[in-house]
Amino acid sequence: MSSSKKLTSESTFLYQYPLEELSNEVKTLIERAKEASYQAYAPYSGFRVGAALLLDNGEILKANNQENVSFPVGMCAERILLGYAHANFPNAVPKKLAIAANRSADANSQATVSPCGMCRQTINEYENKFGQAIEIYMLGPNEQVFFAPGIDALLPLSLMISTHECFLSRQ
Q: For residue range 141-169, what is the model confidence (pLDDT) as tens digits?
């Protein structure tokens, strides 16, 4: 294996901040995500996730997870939110995404959360579509916020448009 190479990515990292150190804009976005999480439909897992998205036109949208007794049919907050944003504001660029989760409707039950694999790939798709990173803020317990400057920090070897074009050209 003398021809092997070690691959590293300088974009794979997260920052951690206390909520109080973030800008008012980000604090508002996180608060909207928390509000959305309390309204999530999660009767089976009790794990409520809310997401809020800031668009370049100043709109802040929010959504939450929606479970279904047929487990794979449920939808994550992030995918619902990005789909809604594009359906209603197709030319508005997503700038910042905040995610919050709790294990009950209790405001003191914040859980650590990050986007699942499907949500990460969906975020990646919108970053590729608009040609810019979406800042991601993930609220954890004790008002600690994990920050990713873009999806590369959470999905370093993502499927990219060039991979898709390569696949299509083979058919």
A: 999 999 999 999 999 877 655 544 544 44
- The answer to whether residues 92 and 56 touch, using CB atoms and an 8 Å cutoff, is yes
**CA nearest neighbour of 83 among 119, 115, 116:** 119
The Cα 77–Cα 74 span in angstroms is: 10
Half-sphere exposure of 157 (CA within 13 A, CB side): 2
Give the fold, CATH level 3, of 15-169.
Cytidine Deaminase; domain 2 (3.40.140)
Q: Quote the pTM value.
A: 0.87
Residue 155 token pair: 């999905």
- Say which residues have a Cβ less than 8 Å from residue 90's Cβ, sequence separation at least 6: none
DSSP 53-84: EEETTS-EEEEE-B--SSGGG-B-HHHHHHHH
| DSSP H/E element including 29 | helix 24-38
At 147, which helix (H) or strand (E)?
strand 144-148
- As a whole number of angstroms, the distance between CA 90 and CA 126 comes to 11
Write out the catalytic residue numbers. Answer: 78
